[in-house]
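Q: I'm writing up a methods section and want to include an example of the input and output format. Could you take the sequence below and give the corresponding predicted structure tokens, formatted cleanly so I can copy it straight into the document?
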Amino acid sequence: MTQYDFDLFVIGGGSGGVRCARIAASHGARVGVAEERFWGGTCVNVGCVPKKLMVMAAEYGSSAADARGFGWNGEQGTHDWARLIANKDAEINRLNSIYVKLLNGAGAQVFEARASFIDAHTLQVGDQVVTAERIVIASGGRPQMPRFPGAEHCIVSDAAFYLPERPQRVTMLGGGYIALEFATIFNGLGSHVDVVMRQPLPLRGFDEDIRTATAEALTSSGMVLHPGVTPLRVEANGAASRVFLSDGSVLDTDLVFAAIGRVANTEGLGLAAAGVATGKSGAVMVDSQHRTSVGHIYAIGDVTDRLNLTPVAIAEGHSLADRLFGPGPRHWDLHRVATAVFCSPPVATVGLTEAEAAERGTVDVYISRFTPMRHTLTGRARKTLMKLIVDQASQIVVGAHMLGEDAAEIMQGLSIAINCGATKQDFDRTVGIHPTAAEEFVTLRTRTRVTEGPKQQDVAEMAGMGAAEAGLGG
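A: Here is the clean output for your methods example:
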């Protein structure tokens, strides 16, 4: 029997890779894990965690202004960008150390180095060569750079966390969740923000009512939207830049921020040397068990470019480690994964959009729009939108969508109900907590409209793709 240095080697120390390595080591496997940049990956360092801290910073400014409606006297102060970045960095450093401590505590061997394939069982890890019986690719993703003339004058999201000072004028290229979250940050801290997006509405792929309400909210907050246009080129203009758009307009700005998508981080991994197949975008192709084209090599998380969410990567890593070295895979329901966009106000959603549900059958749609209780006193022009989508035949709630304060916190609870197959009647007989915005989801009694579908299909399909079909099984 061939003796390998490790039973399992994980390439990438992000959330998914660390979970996989830690759980495998806890089952007694000899585990190595390599990370060349920073422990915790994108989410902890240049993604969800620092971004949400910065969103919170932006919200404090409006909270100070809103307090006057509740009788507090005082003027809104100025913001210290350098202090925010320093405090953010300190928290991220703390989280980095926790990831390493968890790995060491589980008995995994940590390599702070780049790992790449020499062959299907052999890796170059820094200046060492190691072998492993099984290998997991968990190298994540990276921001996509634009390709128009003058792209070198743009930044992507990684750089935004380390800007030495806040720009007064920001031009955001993109209408996805990363673009909107950073637009919220800069706008809330006092920058003028232009959002340039190819689509007529932001958040492509989200429910249309949510997209419309989000556009209205962004405009109401003072941002300027440029829908249906694309950037043609960017030119330096002294210390600033000029952005030339496809509609003939020109924007003068201090920062051009490209948030046009992310790609799998597979460059330089030597995948060809191991025989690992990738798709057109460079993402690693896997089956429902996370296996690549090479049976003993696996891939999890954003490097597979399927459902690019940190909790999904963690679930995949945990499940894979349990299957390979434990008593069997823990089950996570990845059919209907809730997600949130931390713009201001935030968006949260779980299940099918109205259009997706109508493709599977006729649906009942319930919508509520209202001014949050807080803003009846602040006078801020901010609305909340809540929406339930119900399969008419079974009355199962197949989608929930919200734009409004605390949307993510509310949606987490709703995702449990929807993953359990709750019906509209289950919602109706639930007594709400008063006064809250969340109670609106259990008091939606009047149907807004019926959206006809082409045909009725079984309830399981109505509720979303199966894990095997989505490539997320195990």
